[in-house]
Amino acid sequence: MATTSLWKVDKRLDHVIDYATDKKKTKNKNVEESDYIIMQALNYATNADKTEKQFFVSGINCEPKTALKQMIKTKKKFNKYKYSKRNKIMAFHGYQSFEEGEVTPEIAHEIGVKLAEEMWGDRFEVVVSTHLNTKHIHNHFVLNSVSFVDGKKYYSNYENTALLRRTSDDLCDEYGLKVLKKGQYKNYKVNFDKYYESAIQKSSYYTFAKEDIDYAIKQAWSYKQFVNILNNMGYFVNIRAGKISIRREPYKRNIRIERAFGEEYSLERIEYRILYTNPEKEVYPKPQTWNTKLKYKGNLKSKPKAKGLKALYLYYCYLLKVFPKKNMQHKLTPEMREAVKKMDEYSEQTRLICKYNITTLSELNTRKNDFKEELQALINERKKLYYTRDKMPENQNREEILNDIIAIGEKITKVRRKIKLCDNIEKQSLEKLSQIKAFEERQKQEKEQKKNKKKDRRYER
Known about the structure:
The longest helix has 62 residues, at 399-460. By secondary structure, the chain is of the alpha+beta class. The protein is 53% helix and 10% strand.
């Protein structure tokens, strides 16, 4: 049974890394220095899985020897290196401790590396070390507080602590070690089971995974087909210790679906649901059609076609709206389903593009510069009004000038919103192109699969 903890580091980062990677605490006593040099020279290229380690230190998204420099480089890249009220935490330091005699150093380090990869491997730099200087073998983690992907900071709250505990327990369970069952955490102040469920509900990764599993169960005729459907949707499916785990890129965390979503998602229950539920499902599901008549005023032939950014945004919004949740025959990509949540923002961006007839990025930048000039003019006008109000006598009525200041403030807010929309359009246009390509490629693959199935059925006849 392993215990875990994580706490903030708000002083010197180098001291923490030096402590975690201390050679006296991480050295494998079974390997001599000279033997290690020989091992390095030979490189053990043909038998890498069986080579012994002299020091149990590994880096996730960084090299242990240069981890400090890489972490500082990430902080400087996103302007979060200087100490301030909002930037007090330099890193996080944690441990994972095992019972005496429960694991070997190799297994303990292997579990520690997997835990770090699943918890933080998709966004953060982590140093993992296994200390052998006490009766209880334990892993240490040094986690950079700033993500190398987007510059966002890691928050060590109750929900993330619950995820850390549960992920550690899942890994220990897979390795045949003892774990605490649900409700056995001896902490009277905090209910970590509750926070774990809350973290799952807030995570789009878990939410979409559950939707995709339910979809695969409804469409599959056998467990093998269920796995194939999930694979086609971009999931890696594994069975560990008799339980199903799934993972989707770019995430590193494996979702143990029975533990995350309940007993209905155990291996036995999934097989039962596939065989004995949804008897009305079709062999070749047909897409739902729109039966309501639509009327359009004007001549479609004479209407000019949209081009450039305008066409991209209109088509993207069309894809997001035309396939609602009810139409389960056509699954959007995970990125596009995430975009459905931001539909209001995309609609606002589309209205801006159509209103000012923007088709290229150069036109977008020109329009953004116009908005900036308009913004500066409004700010200058508001400054003049503030100056006029300050110079007015106390007995004079200031309501009129205050109303003018409020009205200009509302205009400034709208113009700033337009500038932000321009920045987002420029940033997201390439992402939308890649998402549309991925969606169209998936549709082509589905069509080819249907054609191949029809051919196979013809040959069988």
